[in-house]
Amino acid sequence: MSRRLPKNVMSLERFMLRTEVLKLYKQMLRLVRKIPDQSQRQQLQNFIRQDFELNKNLEDEQAIRMNVMRGKNSMKELERTVHIAQ
Fold first, then answer.
1. pLDDT (tens digit per residue) in 34-52
2. To pair with 37 at 20 to 30 A between CA atoms, which of 7, 62, 71, 78?
3. Quick one: pLDDT at residue 38?
4. 58 Cβ partners below 8 Å, 6+ apart?
């Protein structure tokens, strides 16, 4: 008796990418909480949410990896900006 996985089960690689994206999203939102100005903080939170929302339906793993790299670079830039603002 062979057991087949349903077609909608994601691969391990896809699962790992998804985990990395969610981790990056949470890190960015946590970092934005440190911004003292409430208006700027809200704007950045909205920007981050919109950016992730726009890309949530990406299927191409290479495109997802590129967006993760872009997000990590943005995260580093955001860390520097928040550090200066404090």
1. 998 999 999 999 999 999 9
2. 71
3. 94
4. 64, 67
Q: What is the rounded distance in angstroms from the CA atom of residue 82 to the CA atom of residue 36?
A: 9
Does the pLDDT at position 10 exceed 90? Answer: no
CA distances to 12, 24, 69, 70, 79 from 27, rounded to whole Å, are 22, 5, 14, 14, 10
Structural tokens at position 39: 């208006």
Instruction: Report residue 44 CA to chain centroid gap.
Output: 13
**Amino acid in the structure at residue 83:** H
> What φ, ψ does residue 11 adopt, rounded to 5°?
-70, 165
Q: Check residue 11 and report its DSSP letter.
A: P
**Whole-prediction pTM:** 0.84
